[in-house]
Amino acid sequence: MPQVVLPNQSNYKGEKPVGADRPSPQLALGKEDEPQWLKDFQRDGYAVVKDVVSREKALNYYAPAGEDWLEGFKLGYNRDDPSTWDVKNLPRHIFGGLYGQYSFSHAQFVWDAKTEPKIVELFESLWGTKELTVSFDGGSLAVPLPFDQVQMNAEPWPHSDQSAYRPQRHCVQGLPNILPNGPDDGGLTVLKGSANLFEQYFKEKMHLEPPEKWSTRDGFAWTEETLKWFYDRGCEWVKPVMEPGHFVIWDSRQVHYGAFPRKQNKRFAIYICYKPMAFLTEEQKARKIEAFNRGYVTTHDPCDFIVKSYQDAELNINFPYGKPVVNEQGQKAIGLILY
Ligand SMILES: [Fe+2]
Prior knowledge:
By secondary structure, the protein is α+β, with helices and mostly antiparallel strands. The protein has helices spanning 36-44, 55-71, 108-114, 117-127, 198-204, 224-231, 282-294, 328-334, and strands spanning 46-49, 98-99, 132-134, 139-142, 159-160, 172-176, 187-192, 220-221, 236-238, 247-251, 256-259, 267-270, 274-276. This is Phytanoyl-CoA dioxygenase.
């Protein structure tokens, strides 16, 4: 078998986004019993779905599992002692708590979340198929830190998770929220309605394309100046209030960022995307299995992913807590066993 090549985020130089020559999956629309969240999602570019996990399980299983994960590195962080809530006591992360190394995507509690039946069902009704493939994207365990220890001093970092060269709806991402999440707490913040304007923006703004081109990686960073076009079309910032066990789903084109906690509450979330398995090529399936076996964290797209930076770097530890036990549903979604 030829060696599997895993494109890496730090040196991806493709002329087009990965898989740009293949079609994008379409939403399963027009059913009589179309749920309200799916209508909200189409109109606003995001939707909140309540109680995909029970409040009890979020608070009594997922939250302590996240704390165990942070404390287990034995760098000095103690969940109950705010004097230890300091960047030097935590594993490497970005934006104050976003984890893209240490096999975060393959921690036992993360796999348990990915295979939560109501989360899987949500993506089944979104795409109209039970044969889905899952992402290995990271997650957020944001502990309040002094703002000067946080990237960009904990200011907003508005971005989309698709390339300017992939303007159509191509990926839908989501997260279960683990801790109470009010207006001053950290959490997903979205520019409501921006996903549906993404394509039009790049049509109108081709003259802004820099000589070195926009990134072909699935990401686009926005500024207040570039966002004015969206504000002029009625888009407004919204930070959905979320209870433990609520899920938020959003179009990867939506302008968004993870707000850093402004007060003493932590913010825990696990990133989860599913896409129809039919869109995963055989080559991508081989890559996915290899990434799983190595414990790698990838970008959001379950099919057209590339591997996050530093997976093989000295600073990283793959499977710091051993390999996860993945149930049958999860093994199917990786491609280890057939549907
Ligand atoms: Fe994002």
